[in-house]
Amino acid sequence: MAFDELNLQSDLLRAVEALGWKDPTPIQQQAIPLVLEGRDVLGAAQTGSGKTAAFALPILTHLAEDRRPGPRVLVLVPTRELAVQVTETFQSLAQFTSFKVSTIVGGVGYDQQRKAVSEGVDVVVATPGRLLDHLQSRAFTLARVDHLVLDEADRMLDMGFLPDIKSIIQRVPADRQTLLFSATLVPEVERIAAFALKDPIRIEVARPATVAEGISQVLYPVIQDQKTDLLITLLKNTEMRSVLVFTRTKHGADRLAQRLEKAGYPVEVLHSNRTQRERTEAMDNFKAGKSQILVATDIAARGIDVKDISHVINYDVPQHPEDYVHRVGRTARAYGVGDAITLMDPLEQVHVTDIERFTNLVFPRAVAPNFPYKIAPKLEAPKTSHKTAWDRVWSRGHTTASRRRR
Question: Is there a single domain that holds both residue 222 and residue 264?
Fold first, then answer.
């Protein structure tokens, strides 16, 4: 199926052609006809599958067929970075139209956002907290909204936005089309769908736990205090064009970035303690290739859509299997290829086991040649979730080594 077979408005097809898009992705093939029909949709698709265009193209087609004052479209997203990404997609697709898109997120002045909406916009892309601030101050109304999109719903729940989402939905007309997209349709997401959507059509392009086929995955067992040295060794010995490194904490991201800078690598940092200007600058430098490495936390990195990320590195193993799928999906975008590397301390084995069960994979274990391991890594995946004798020895060695350093 080609884009011109999807009954999209002609100016939008011009934009698709200008963007160089050849054929619609599976999520676009399935979702666009349903959205054009006016159906509510509950969709699950792996990261990098073209999900944003799957709802932006048919929604903009609806707007083109029935021009009225707005805002007529509200897209709720969990993070500022994702809001910027979704806004840019809408703007790119609307480049040959007069549609206006506004972004409402934290870290930007309230007055500027109020003015943008009051001057007339068709599409509002917002994070729940900042949008609710505006609504509670009666800066503007959502009374004309007839398309509501809840994007990355699972992450919004993880971030505690459920009360805000419910409050916002109460301010949107009941006679609307609602689309909910999530990387995983966990029970909590299904509960949101139960009160937000009407008789939705369910779309699952890939099993929610599926990692993109083009991603090569490997795991390096190593004790925690040697992770940075091993990472630098891997950077030296492997051709890594553009690298996204995930840490569990903001402070961990800062510490790692400082070590990498001292080792001579151009690096940026992305986490919620950074100002909006710092986050924008970090993303711009990474996208432009000025910085080879971006160190980020999960929440800040949700919404990163950078072409040609060659490697995703899990410096800390994610504690939730879904987060692993989201992380590694930052590479191999749009069905490309990429590498995902995970550094695993013995105490993180339990999380790796959960991820392997969730993805139905057993990751190959590897060692870095000539790396001075303090404790020899174990290269076989455990056959049980219980600690093996080797795991206990490794853990004791880890503790002993830590005491010696103190």
Answer: yes
pLDDT of residue 305: 66
Domain-ending residue, one of 183, 204, 225? 204
**Domain range for 313:** 215-405
Distance separating alpha carbons of residues 334 and 46, to the nearest angstrom: 10
Q: Report which of 256, 249, 234 is spatially closest to residue 366, judged by C-alpha positions.
A: 234
145 near 62, Cβ under 8 Å?
Answer: no
| pLDDT value, residue 301 | 59
Q: How far is CA 271 from CA 129, 142, 341, in A?
A: 18, 30, 21
Whether residue 35 lies inside any domain: the answer is yes
> Alpha-carbon distance 19 to 323, whole Å?
30
d(CA 184, CA 83): 19
Least Cα distance to 108 among 270, 303, 273, 276 occurs for 276
Indicate if the pLDDT at residue 405 is higher than 50: no
pTM above 0.70, yes or no: no
**SS3 (DSSP) at 45:** coil
- Kindly state the helix (H) or strand (E) to which residue 240 belongs, with its residue range: none
Count up the domains in the chain and report the number.
Answer: 2
For 243-259, the pLDDT digits (tens) are 999 998 889 999 999 99
Q: How far apart are the C-alpha atoms of 265 and 259, rounded to whole Å?
A: 9
The predicted-structure confidence for 49-80, as pLDDT tens digits, reads as follows 788 999 999 999 999 998 888 799 999 998 88
Which CATH number belongs to the domain containing residue 380 in this structure? 3.40.50.300
Residues 311 and 373 reside in one and the same domain: yes
